[in-house]
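Page 47, continued from p. 46.
Same chain as before, 333 aa.
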Amino acid sequence: MLDLKRTWIFVFGFVFLVLSIVSAVAQVDTPAVCLIGDHPGLPESDAQTAALLVCDELRKQGISITDPVYEAPASANAYRVVLRRLGEKIIVRLSQENPIGTIITERQLTLANIEEMILAAPRLVDALVHNKPIDDTVDMETVTEQEARELRKISGESMWNVGILGTFVPGTDIAAEPGYEWGWSYQTPAYAVGTEFRSSGSDGDEDSDDFSFFAWSIGGRYFFNKQNISPYVGGGFSIINVSYEAKEKRPVRHQPSFAPWGYDDPYNNEESKSKLGAYGVAGIEALRLTESRLKLELRIDRPFFSLPSKDIMPITFGIFFSRNYIPGSGCLF
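Result:
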């Protein structure tokens, strides 16, 4: 009785093993189905050719697959090609389903026209089979029109600007020293970036200090509204050159008896440095709805250095005019 029971167990085990092997072999020998998916608004010939191109690429990857068909058994391993229109563009999606309706993986690409399917088929198959992002399959010969489209940008305008300003240096007798600025900026309704060169200072009188200030700056500004008049703040970095000469008086020791107490020639001690610095600005810009601009601006420059005898931090206040510049127009203003 025991031997009979073992015999039946052996028989059932052997049959189960044989059936498993046969099923596996049959599954390996059964080719995948190349399935023509939905394609509303596209001719049947285009849909069939698109599926044929994809299936040919799958064969090149070593995948056994049928010719394109419209239907497949529910348990089949299928590669489905779906085409859908979006205006003039065509969205093509390749998916692997096993069984039908259960998506294992898929990839999608947007085409400008159905002819780009010739470029898209190898990329879709490569991305699907090797589990790559579709963007990693592009090269110089397979880029689509959609991928090569011109990127849209927020509109802006180029502005040339000039201005006059006065410079004040706390802790010295430098006050309202005249200067000028010229530069270029690119403006959007909310932001502006640009570069400018400014110079200020003059030789002082006999009883006043000499001062000169040069700065080349790059930075940006933020406008608080998009109306015709807007306050703004900004800042940036500069290459700054500061020169300062303090003039001191010395009493005259040998003065004629008929002359009052006097002074010799001024005693000069000039100091100069050029290094990096930062700046901050605040101001108001007007006429923003026209091609020209007028602004009032307060600016503080903070050099990342000090002169041997004094810490110089120029503060300027000025008025500036800007004008929209179109390259190729032949005129700055």
